[in-house]
Amino acid sequence: MRIKTSHLVLPIIAITIYAAIANMHTYGCWTPLTITLLSPVNTTYSMNSVPLTFTVNRETSWIGYCVDDQGTVTIAGNITLSGFLDGEHTVIVYGNDTCGIMSASEMVHFAVDTTPPNITDISQEPPASNVMPEDEVTVTATVTDYVSNVMQVTLNYTNGNGTWSKVDMVNSNGDKWNATIPAFPLGTNVTYILKAEDAVGNGITTEEMGYTYKYPVIPEFSTKVMLSLFMLTTPLAVLLYKKGKNAPSN
Ligand SMILES: [Ca+2]
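Above: inputs. Below: predicted complex with calcium ion.
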């Protein structure tokens, strides 16, 4: 009996499907490849390197990762991702199972913040040249931070006796922070430093920025005496000037 080619089509298809099913069964292809990212997580890191850690539920033939949509990089397993700039980032891990089916982890969003806050516009009231014994001194500064928020700003001051006092500065208006140094006796030389810290622990002091703030406590009468002298001498000077102007010239 002669077998027509058309009679072979169905058996071949059946055998192919059976082989494929057997192969899928042998290699567990019925179970989808699941990639679970353990690190990084959705948070802000204070270092520019982050561990890339993940698990898979079955054998893989290929694994790769993609950071910030910058292309896929092949890896053999967990690694450390490095060289991140401060800011927001994403990462996703891809994998092929032994049946050649690709899966992907969930995309993880995270941030990197390695920079301490910026302290600017530091001022005090009364000014450093005019602090008298009864004066409390209010110190004001602008403090900002890139990526994470300003967590804490402190004012540290000393009267030169070797000990430092610390007071938390209050966020009064936008990026403005202020705190008060108590009054000190006449002749005291006060030194103060501001320290700021962001939400992930990056800190800086005004001393580290190269700024030192000092003021002496001066006598209370000095300004009043100066003012009285000014009020007394000014009319006298005007009078002498007018007299000189009106005097007949020789
Ligand atoms: Ca920061």
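The helical segments are 6-26, 220-246.
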